[in-house]
UniProtKB/TrEMBL annotation:
<dbReference type="Pfam" id="PF13727">
    <property type="entry name" value="CoA_binding_3"/>
</dbReference>
<keyword id="KW-0812">Transmembrane</keyword>
<feature type="transmembrane region" description="Helical">
    <location>
        <begin position="82"/>
        <end position="106"/>
    </location>
</feature>
<comment type="similarity">
    <text>Belongs to the bacterial sugar transferase family.</text>
</comment>
<dbReference type="GO" id="GO:0016740">
    <property type="term" value="F:transferase activity"/>
</dbReference>
<keyword id="KW-0808">Transferase</keyword>
<feature type="transmembrane region" description="Helical">
    <location>
        <begin position="112"/>
        <end position="131"/>
    </location>
</feature>
<feature type="domain" description="Bacterial sugar transferase">
    <location>
        <begin position="274"/>
        <end position="459"/>
    </location>
</feature>
<keyword id="KW-1133">Transmembrane helix</keyword>
<feature type="transmembrane region" description="Helical">
    <location>
        <begin position="281"/>
        <end position="302"/>
    </location>
</feature>
<feature type="transmembrane region" description="Helical">
    <location>
        <begin position="50"/>
        <end position="70"/>
    </location>
</feature>
<keyword id="KW-0472">Membrane</keyword>
<dbReference type="InterPro" id="IPR017464">
    <property type="entry name" value="Sugar_tfrase_EpsB_2"/>
</dbReference>
<feature type="transmembrane region" description="Helical">
    <location>
        <begin position="12"/>
        <end position="38"/>
    </location>
</feature>
<dbReference type="Pfam" id="PF02397">
    <property type="entry name" value="Bac_transf"/>
</dbReference>
<protein>
    <submittedName>
        <fullName>Glycosyl transferase</fullName>
    </submittedName>
</protein>
<dbReference type="InterPro" id="IPR017475">
    <property type="entry name" value="EPS_sugar_tfrase"/>
</dbReference>
Amino acid sequence: MIRLFGHHVSGLNLVLGLLELALFVAALQLGVGARFGWELPHDIAPADTWVTGLIFALVMSLSLASMGLYQRRAQDGDAGFVVRLAIAFAIGTAVLALLFYLFPAIVMGRGVLALSLLFSFVGTVALRIAFDQIAGAESQKRRVLVLGAGVNAERIAELAERDRTLGFCVVGYVPLPRSQRLLADDKLLTQKGSLLELAIAHNVDEIVVAADDRRRKLPVGELLDCKLSGFAVLDLLTFFEKEVAAVKIDLLHPSWIFFSRDGFRIGVTGLYGKRLLDLTLGSLMVLVAAPVMLLVALASLVESRGRDPVFYHQIRIGQGGLPFRVHKFRSMRVDAEADGRARWAAKNDSRITPLGAFMRRTRLDEVPQLFNVLKGQMSLVGPRPERPEFVERLSSGIPYYAERHRVKPGLTGWAQLLYPYGSDEEDAKRKLEYDLYYVKHAGIFLDLVILLQTVEVVLLGKGAR
């Protein structure tokens, strides 16, 4: 993992993205060569092919990113990869067709485009297979030495066992004196010399301090020696933040927030840039979605025979804990909460209408929230806005829950992408860990990443309920 604009990004995926960017440029040049026999027509300059090649490469790379193909857990089997790749190429083709229509000067012809897409598809599949063989090997992962062998060290062991796609491998666990040992002996390392000598002997990249009780004496001098010798030394909370892109509530303590050298702040440029992004994209999305909203409204009237309202307005909690009215298409029966009790939506919820089930799978019910975005009550990206009843209950039971209101709620967010739909307090706690990660790293860069990956959620219905 490397830091890019304050956000942790997989170094391997960044390399893969750059390789595929170069591949797409080369694919368009091959398409031109195959179409014209390497002798360009007199009205096409060689420089034009390179400009078009860069545009082609950027559009295709963003299309792959929008389908989650640069996430560690995106390749859910060969079939899933092919489906995602096919949809990404369909998106890229549609965007390129629109660009060629709007800017005729960059058009290279349908034959060149078709050949370039064919070469790109074949090249992408071949590159992914080769990259997985080389970069997917255990030897390419970061080598981590864990200081501790108790409860916290066991958390790392469980994470490494549960998700083998993560970009690290544990070379061993070093027990601390007078501390419990919960791990098997074959995972423990015997410290014969100094911690630095042990790290060098095992070719370690970073050391994670996973002591159960930090009030006991840690080998501070040895850790300092490792740090000054070039080894990364991380506390357990920072390690989990980097690996799972979440702030673990069970490990969070105020001093970690106090002394965080980055995060938990958005500068003036980032604040106004985020608002400009909301207004620009929000306005564009309203224009594009207007015909769809009209069709949904008509379908809703037909379903209810004109007896029930099309829209649903509900009080939610926004930035700073202030309430606001959120606008949605009605997806439940009008008597869904006739008894006055607020309930989370559940799987196969009987209160949801047939049209509502379709709207929830496609996220069409949330399209009217774009007007909340334009009014400044919401952002395109942010934590999901919750009802006051839920906020009051969750704030009293989950520490740091109120901190998610430091930013505007959003149509989509980091938690919505990485955690399934929540239906109880435990789910709310887990989602809060992702929300706090977003609060810490909020900015235009992370917003764009989330917006691109949300395309995958909308098209594939991922996480919908």
